[in-house]
UniProtKB/TrEMBL annotation:
Membrane-protein topology: Multi-pass membrane protein
Gene3D superfamilies in the record: 1.10.287.1260, 2.30.30.60, 3.30.70.100
Keywords recorded for this protein, A-Z: Cell inner membrane, Cell membrane, Ion channel, Ion transport, Membrane, Transmembrane, Transmembrane helix, Transport
Protein name: Small-conductance mechanosensitive channel
GO cellular component, one term: plasma membrane
Record family assignment: Belongs to the MscS (TC 1.A.23) family.
Region entry Disordered, spans: 306-334
Transmembrane keyword on record: yes
Organism: Thalassotalea marina
Localization annotation: Cell inner membrane; Cell membrane
GO MF entries: mechanosensitive monoatomic ion channel activity
Transmembrane segments: 26-46, 66-87, 93-115
Key word Glycosyltransferase present: no
């Protein structure tokens, strides 16, 4: 009986000793875990203000909103990951922390290969927002598409062509291709060819056309207009007329049409011959044909308007783009 009581007492003593050891071990482990958890929460709370402070100097490098947002989120992510790593170290999970970091790198590599095109497009968007090779409202030609830039999002550049169609071009394509900008330099050359007969004085016609061109406000004085002999045709001396206009305010097709009509009228009024290259054989039978009447030259003055609308088509395209439904919901990054 006494032996049994002693055995029971010893057993209880061992139980309480083990329990005390477990509580002590739990307390010893819980303190670093609690400290690590507090550190992680602090890092999460401080990630936003610290990231904003860290990227402040980048504002002197670029004013791009997209670049600012991406930089801030990357810095915030690394700050939170640092806090999580400290938490794992204090919790005694060093090996797990190293495995987590290695796994994150491997996962990032796999995701990078899987979403290569998306990543390339996003990086191109970021570079476009930083470098700003063009602006909203510029007239561009990108990969055989010509139109007015309406929107640039993180995915694509939207241009509106002169038929009113919205064309979305992935930013990776925009960044890698040749961009022809018609708006960067407002001075644009307008050219057309006109043929005069070999019996006409080339020097006189050149001076006549140049003098007439100076009377049009749409034609810029600098660079000066030119009338040059382009080539000698079968029946005409072909002259190339070159003028410069402000494409911001003037429609190039309208200006070209107006100038050709007025130069044609000028040459007709001055009796400058303009033979046709085509050759025609006419057989006249006097017994059956009526007398040939003299061909009279009708003036084109009645057909020409005193003042023509030469306003730029870009303004109308911009108005239509503003009124149309946007094909993509996204904020402009330029």
């Amino acid at each position: 009986m006494q032996l049994s009581l002693m055995t029971t007492t010893a057993s209880n003593t061992d139980y309480f000793s083990g329990l005390a050891l477990d509580v002590e071990q739990l307390t010893t482990n819980a303190i670093p875990v609690a400290i690590g958890l507090v550190c992680f929460v602090l890092f999460v709370l401080l990630s936003r203000p610290l990231s904003q402070l860290a990227i402040k100097p980048l504002g002197f490098v670029s004013k791009s909103k997209l670049f600012t947002v991406v930089s801030r989120r990357l810095v915030s992510f690394f700050i939170m990951m640092l806090g999580f790593y400290i938490f794992l170290r204090l919790a005694g999970l060093t090996q797990f922390a190293l495995a987590l970091i290695s796994g994150t790198g491997l996962a990032g590599l796999i995701v990078g290969f899987a979403f290569k095109d998306i990543a390339e497009n996003f990086i191109s968007s970021l570079l476009l927002s930083i470098q700003k090779p063009f602006r909203i409202g510029d007239v561009l030609t990108i990969e055989n598409y010509t139109g007015v830039v309406d929107q640039v999002t993180s995915r694509a550049t939207t241009i509106v062509d002169f038929d009113g169609n919205h064309i979305q071009i992935p930013n990776a394509t925009v960044y890698k291709n040749v961009i022809k900008n018609y708006t960067a330099n407002p001075n644009t050359r307008v050219q057309f060819t006109i043929g005069i007969g070999y019996d006409a004085s080339v020097s006189y016609v050149q001076a006549l056309i140049l003098d007439k061109l100076q009377s049009y406000p749409v034609v810029l004085n600098q660079p000066p207009a030119q009338v040059l002999v382009d080539n000698l045709g079968a029946s005409t001396i072909n002259l190339t007329v070159s003028v410069w206009v402000d494409s911001h305010d003037t429609s190039l097709p309208k200006a070209k049409s107006m100038l050709q009509k007025n130069i044609l009228q000028l040459l007709l009024d001055e009796n400058i011959s303009m033979p046709d290259d085509a050759r025609e054989r006419i057989i006249i039978q006097a017994d059956q044909q009526p007398p040939v009447q003299a061909i009279t030259k009708t003036s084109l003055d009645e057909q020409l308007e005193v003042s023509e609308d030469l306003s730029s088509d870009v303004t109308e395209i911009k108005r239509q783009a503003d009124a149309a439904r946007s094909p993509e919901a996204g904020e402009n990054i330029l």
